[in-house]
Amino acid sequence: MGSNATDTARLTVAVTGPTGTFGFGLMPLLQADDRVSRVVGVARRPFDPAEHGWTKLDYRRGDVRDQDALVDAFQGADVVVHLAFLIIGGSRETTRAINVDGTLNAFRAAAAAGARRFVYASSVAAYGFHRDNPVGMTEDWPVRPADRLFYAQEKAELEHLLQAESAAHPDLALYLLRPPIVLGPHVVGAKELLPGPLAPLARRLQGRIGRLPVPVPAFIPDVPVQFIHEDDVGTALLQCVVAAGPPGAYNIAGDGVLSAVDVARELGIVPLPLPAGPTHAAARALSRLPLLPSAAEWVEAASHPAVMDTTRAKSRLGWTPRFTGLEALRDTLRR
To answer: How far is CA 114 from CA 41, 79, 166, 309, in A?
Structure first.
């Protein structure tokens, strides 16, 4: 399905989670795009679109666990963009109800409302952190649940579930975007997701990512990492909204692969690099410990590199990131 005047003229777009990190990347683009006439936003917390100049947004407080409310909100929508997802906070049962059940509710509500496209923000984590994953994974590489990390397990499970739902609703085109760690001024949770020992250091900076006031030496694993800026996630989402390319899965990331050592330097840390091999082995061993707390499950992400190839998004969606991975990090640190 390609972009054309009939398909993209005066779209009504429904967005779950418009007030989150991804939403703040997408909403200004929908507001500025003449092809979009109206936006319906659904989220749980109070929010005033006028404070951001989002005159197209009809904001409704709602919960993705309430499928009837979603069906009502999606009436008349040409496209549904599902961004609502809980990363931290809440019990495992609550998290699953919002992430897995809520996503299926959104897809089924979109189908019931007669929407033409469903755009879902997945993650590089859907690939899992398996030893045979190549560095530079393309979209043809299989999506497989991680061994322990609940977030990665749910992302992989949801991709499989959405593919099955899509097969049952062929008139609703499914777009899947797989970003790595997302950075930017409205980022939520990045302090927790920074590689390895950088997370606790970043969390101490008064609740905000920034440079340490004085250089601090630290042992840092020399492992690769990709970043993407929230604005570049927004442009990729918009390309899916207007059907700039065919439905399917797309890897997206800022150009350039950094290492945790590079990130440490940007934070003002004096890195003492640790070899990648022992770091991966230690992460695998820690991730297999019984009774591992949920927050500690993130150590599995360091057990194998998760580096994607983004050629398909650039060639088929016509998407080009504005920020490199390093520029995304620096823009976040400046805020």
So the answer is: 17, 9, 13, 33
**How distant, in Å, are the alpha carbons of 102, 110, 171, 179, 246 from that of 165?**
14, 11, 11, 22, 18
Q: Provide the pLDDT for residue 290.
A: 63
Position 247, amino acid: P
Domain identity same for 127 and 217: no
Examine residue 332 and state whether it is found in any structural domain, yes or no.
no
**Structural domain boundaries enclosing 242:** 5-186+228-256+307-325
User: Residues 210, 148: one domain?
Assistant: no
- The pLDDT value recorded for residue 191 is 41
C-alpha span between 318 and 328 (Å, rounded): 20
Q: Which CATH number belongs to the domain containing residue 153 in this structure?
A: 3.40.50.720
Phi and psi dihedrals of 33, rounded to 5? -90, 120
- What is the Cα–Cα distance from 2 to 244, expressed in whole angstroms? 5
Question: What DSSP string describes 112-148?
Answer: HHT-SEEEEE--GGGG---TTPPTTB-TTSPP---SS
Please say whether the beta carbons of 323 and 334 come within 8 A. no
Residues 205, 312, single domain; the answer is no
> Do 123 and 251 reside in the same domain of the chain?
yes
Per residue in 47-101, pLDDT (tens digit) is 999 999 999 999 999 999 999 999 999 999 999 999 999 887 668 899 999 999 9
Residue 335 in any domain: the answer is no
Give yes or no: residues 129 and 10 share one domain.
Answer: yes
Edge-first strand listing for the sheet containing 248-251: 57-61, 36-43, 11-16, 79-82, 117-121, 173-178, 248-251
192: Cα within 13 Å, side-chain hemisphere: 12
Angle at CA 100, nearest 5°, toward 94 and 105?
105
Residues of the chain with pLDDT under 50: 1-6, 8, 189-209
Q: Are residues 200 and 135 in the same domain?
A: no
What number of residues does the chain have? 335
Domain count, the chain: 2
- Assess whether 61 and 95 both reside in one domain: yes
